[in-house]
Amino acid sequence: MRNVRTAAPSTRCDVDELLVPDPIKVLRTATPVPSGVGALFVNPQSGVETDVSWFDPAHWRSRDAVIGEPRGRGAALLVEHEGRRYALRHYRRGGLIARLSTDRYLWLGEGLTRPVREFMLNLRMHADGLPVPLPVAARFERVGMTYRGDLITEWLPDTQTLAQRLDAGEIGLSTWAAIGRCLHRFQEYGLYHSDLNAHNILVRGEEEVFLIDFDNGSRRSPGLWRDANLARLRRSLDRLEDSRAQRRFDDAQWQCLLSACL
Fold this sequence. Notes:
Layout: E1 15-19, E2 25-33, E3 36-42, H1 57-62, E4 66-68, E5 77-81, E6 84-90, E7 105-106, H2 114-127, E8 135-143, E9 146-154, E10 160-161, H3 162-168, H4 173-189, E11 191-192, E12 201-204, E13 208-211, E14 218-219, H5 225-242, H6 251-261
Antiparallel strand pairs: 1-2, 2-3, 3-8, 4-5, 5-6, 6-9, 7-9, 8-9, 10-12, 11-14, 12-13
Helix pairs in contact: 4-6
């Protein structure tokens, strides 16, 4: 984390203020973990008080507050609290490494944990006015040389993923152009999205578009990564269409997206 002042993890429940580039501030609380240490990071501008119980799915189920169950490795648990909805995402591994551990990662330092990196990146983008969810809190739990982590963001109301919109029917060219303009904003910002696909693009109405899930994302100088991001999205869309008897996405729609993006 650049320009971030962090305190060394401890087992005391002390609270520190982390300073990221103005005007963002983050509250860090050291949290005891059995046989290890952890920390909770909270966005004080989120307008809600959170604690470690928020990261426990059982906490929400006991209050009958779950409104959506996760489906798939990167999916989030959707919960409701005092009229607002939140997405709780537990970091899970994929691929062959998941056979060794489904949710533990090698400890390389607090600032390099996946939840802290994504939380700080999401905070910066939200403060800069990009169409992303409001980040609420993140945490990690370290035991020895490995850690687990979670992230909470506010759920964007009245949105559907691009995949869901395609499942419901064809999408008009104005929406494809809106998606292209949204992607252009992120590319101009230098945002490398490590998993740009039809499930990480949210659409509200016909022309309001958001991006989500910035795990392993970063800001980069212009380069070939922009084309690689778009190629990844195209492969995601083609995979969705391969399972349909009648295509709802074609080259004309893709060219409309590209024209607005490039």
